[in-house]
Amino acid sequence: MIVAIDGPAAAGKGTLARRLAAAFELAYLDTGSLYRATACRHARTGEAPAVAAKRLSDADRDDPDLRSEAISRLASKVSAEPAVRQALLDYQRDFAHRPPDGKAGAVLDGRDIGTVVCPDADVKLFVTASLETRAGRRHAELAGRDEAVTLDQVRADLARRDADDASRATAPLKPADDAHLLDTSDLDIEPAFDAARAIVAAAIAARASS
């Protein structure tokens, strides 16, 4: 069972993905962390982004700077490089098709899981929300980490990243043709999770009866 969850930053896909993985006892991979780790290693070592992607270590993925706004911006740029995406593609597909710890499947969230990484996923969700809603969520997250950034700055940064992600030549951000669209603009986490869980449960039931 492979569940692909895509969507723009701060739409809530990471929270949903983690909760779905826990609810259905599936492995979970935040693919964005791979790109942030690549960006962090590139910034720290000066290695070319594609080289940094191939040399990622567990320490790179646990770097405390991964969630900073500066690294998030750099990760958006790094992820547009075809060589970086190719370097990380095999890792993501291997995780999806051979999940660790004997799990019966995996949940992956990112920008191109349903369209490029796992086009054969059993369930595809595209989680989105309005720019204002996402900016408010991200600003609150950053404020909780004592990062000095204004709401206007966060809004402008998200708008810029949205444009970059949607217009890049390689694996642009877009919903797969068969993805379920879930707009969380007016949903708290519980109703959003209930909606996502129902979609995954229906897919599991359909597989069991086929």
Write the layout of secondary structure elements.
Elements: E1 2-6, H1 13-23, E2 27-30, H2 31-45, H3 49-54, H4 58-61, H5 69-78, H6 82-97, E3 106-110, H7 113-117, E4 123-128, H8 131-144, H9 151-167, E5 180-183, H10 189-209
Parallel strand pairs: 1-3, 1-4, 2-3, 4-5
Helix pairs in contact: 1-10, 2-5, 8-9
Summarize the structure.
With 210 residues, the protein is of the alpha/beta class.
Notes on the structure:
There is one protein chain. Strands 2-3-1-4-5 form a five-stranded parallel β-sheet, sandwiched between helices. Helices cover 57% and strands 11% of the residues. It is α/β, with parallel strands linked by helices and 210 residues long. The protein is built from ten helices and five strands.
**Helical segment tally?**
10
Structural class: alpha/beta
Give the low-pLDDT segments. none
The beta-strand count equals: 5
Rg from Cα: 17 Å
Overall pLDDT metric: 93
Strand order of the largest sheet: 2-3-1-4-5
Terminal CA distance reads: 14 Å
Shape: globular
Helix fraction? 55-70%
Approximate strand percentage: 5-15%
Report on the biggest sheet: 5 strands, parallel
- H-E string: EHEHHHHHEHEHHEH
